[in-house]
Amino acid sequence: xxxxxxxxxxxxxxxxxxxxxxxxxxxxxxxxxxxxxxxxxxxxxxxxxxxxxxxxxxxxxxxxxxxxxxxxxxxxxxxxxxxxxxxxxxxxxxxxxxxxxxxxxxxxxxxxxxxxxxxxxxxxxxxxxxxxxxxxxxxxxxxxxxxxxxxxxxxxxxxxxxxxxxxxxxxxxxxxxxxxxxxxxxxxxxxxxxxxxxxxxxxxxxxxxxxxxxxxxxxxxxxxxxxxxxxxxxxxxxxxxxxxxxxxxxxxxxxxxxxxxxxxxxxxxxxxxxxxxxxxxxxxxxxxxxxxxxxxxxxxxxxxxxxxxxxxxxxxxxxxxxxxxxxxxxxxxxxxxxxxxxxxxxxxxxxxxxxxxxxxxxx
Length: 363
Ligand SMILES: *Cc1c(COP(=O)(O)O)cnc(C)c1O
Hints:
The chain is α/β, with parallel strands linked by helices.
């Protein structure tokens, strides 16, 4: 079998051009006689790679000079602790609970201070984004935390919350670099790169410089302080060199296509193909309130577990793989990240119609 259309939620597809370029340079990176995986992170060649990656990321996203861009490890999950450890000065913050990842972050923050649930969509199994125009934010809160795209439930914020002057902290793991953003609207945002940007093992955090504290309590581990990596340009210890290199190639790929505006146009086009097919179907149903549907992750069901399983199996035989839904939602989930070509989504939509013709809904 050749390349498949991989609808996995993460790790997920990478652009073929990027994989091919990495393959060309794999054993001898630009005449150095070695792979990026084998070279010193203190050497000149890698220094060029990480500096270029950061510069391209800044251009792509439009990161102002008063923000750090940090390449970290520990996954999105480690940020659930790092955020409160570093930013909870008053030991109080507000969290909007829109799914598993927001809930995990909220629960972790409770270890370090008073993490208040400002709103939640748990009442309807996280199928919508709550109204965030007038949240019960209090003066003593250090920040307001959201998960901007809910990978499991398939909801996405299309309007940021009114934080009433407090700094917004966002987990953007699963919609990272999918559309243009205004960095100045955030105190910080972070994303594990394995959903939409690169190989698992690196987290990119963008944080406003004045939020990076140097007066943290003694017991905060050195490696969990943003100041540690900020002072050393993400090279305090050995960084995830290979991941940073691949991310750098992905940034170039995005810049070449026309940046995040063009990426967003393509993502909207893909989502339209998918959701139009879903809305036209009598067999398949979306699980999310329409206006909150994620452009990245689309859960859907037939309502019949056996039929869902058959769909997933037959789709895989057509080269449409990893469509099984998360266990908390069931059914199917199509993740249509940046590297998924529109042809993959068109093929999925066509297969859905074909499957429905064989399994008509009788009423
Ligand atoms: C996958 C995911 C995480 C967890 O990432 P890890 O790198 O596995 O720790 C956190 N937040 C969101 C939104 C995710 O999709």
